[in-house]
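Data card: per-record layout.
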Amino acid sequence: MLKSINQLDQEDDLKSFIRHFGEIDRIYLNGNSLGRMPLKTLEVIQEVTANEWQNGLISSWYSKWLKRPAAIAAKVAALINADEDEVFVGDSTSIQLYKLIFGALQLHPDRNEIIIDDLNFPTDYYILNGIMQQSFQQHKVQTITSSDQIHGNEAELSTAISDKTALVYMSHVAYKSAFMYDMARINAQAETMGALTLWDLSHSAGAVPVDVKASNTNMAVGCLYKYLNGGPGAPAFLYVKKDLQDQLLNPIMGWFGHKAPFALDPVFDPNPGIQKYAVGTPGILSLSALGPGLDLILEAGISRLRKKSLQMSSYFIGQYHQRLQSKGYILVSPEDAEKRGSHVSLAHDKADVIYQQLTHPEHTDQKAVICDFRPPNLLRFGLAPLYNSFAEIEYCILRLEEIAG
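The structure for this 405-residue chain is written out next.
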């Protein structure tokens, strides 16, 4: 017997976490773009600005701020099962990608092939192409194409990795469809051929289990403002396996990456280990805002978050088949739960109009449903198990049904 919406929400063992975010007057299903703000973040920012900055002034660098990047990195490390000295937090995802791609390509100059797919986020291509134009013009890219723009072509990817491959560079969860790769299997195939792997975890960290040790991952990056609720433009993280750190160059040599930054030596001497990936002065306000979201994710536990995420997306897809498919919607996410991240995408010929009516309802008794529109015809619904309920998903389905007529 199918459970009712009330039963699903009553049996949700994560339901108590919503109190950490407060009430809003909308249905927010866009946590895969920007997560909600934990209430404690307000307290943290107030403490940093009113006490540490206003009163402590520059002395706060030595008493608190210089330790903060490593403290936040330790929380990220716990989330992805890395050692604390394998994770660095700072700069944007794009900058982190630049550092790692450049270092990976320089490490093996005898290998000139890079493997990507056509499901990656656009900035991943931009960064890669810019590096190749500027510094690695002899390299070539092999793009693995998806036949349906939903599922990654894992069979073609497996055969493409060769002894000429320098880097396999993928998004763990595809930003459009939520298709999720088997990291461990691809890492193993790359290792057999002597190639490095780099994973973009931006749409998976905090929503699906990521274990960099068990999967034998070489390198990874991820943003912290989606499912990890770190705030708009929050600093990103990078991960580098310990035995690779001394082999890879950080091409952006800034003073915080120096072994002794406050010695102000005119000759750059890189910090050993993961701290060589530091560049400029860390952004303390944005770093501090990361703490509450990460703490909540760690408290909830990724296994419980994944369980609820799959329950929510499976419910959404089940309702799509029953109520939305006949209204012109097309599912653009994997049916197989094990191949799916934590968002569900639907296509529709009038997606732009539907989006406007969802986000700006005509009647005052209707709640706005905040999702994500990607031209020309895609609607993405980010299901954040930490603060979304089954009742919210049901309301979204009802509005999609009503609007499409």
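Known properties of this structure: The chain is about 40% helix and 15% strand. Residues 255 and 261 are 5 Å apart (CA to CA).

See the next section for split statistics.
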